[in-house]
Write a structure and sequence with these properties.
Length: 90
């Protein structure tokens, strides 16, 4: 499960970095569209995280406990990523 955790942390890092950099670009060029940017990024993040969990459960997980453990880990990582990115930009 170590490689799954590493890849999940990498995914969360990339999503957080995309949000922070995208926020800077939108704020610089078109600050009136920040609300739209936030909603679009929230949708993209949810879709990517949901897809990652679904792929893990369908293709890799060996039992229900493994699936639940992975899903809980992803939820915790997602919450931490959201808190960190919101603290950095607001």
């Amino acid at each position: 499960m170590a490689i799954e955790i590493f890849l999940s942390a990498l995914l969360m890092t990339l999503l957080g970095l995309a949000y922070v950099k995208g926020y800077d670009v939108v704020k610089r060029h078109s600050p009136e569209h920040l609300a739209h940017f936030y909603l679009i990024m929230a949708t993209v993040r949810m879709l990517l995280v949901g897809t990652a969990v679904a792929l893990y459960v369908l293709l890799i997980a060996s039992d229900r406990e493994d699936s639940l453990r992975f899903a809980l880990t992803i939820i915790i990582m997602y919450v931490v990523m959201m808190v960190v990115t919101l603290k950095l930009r607001h």
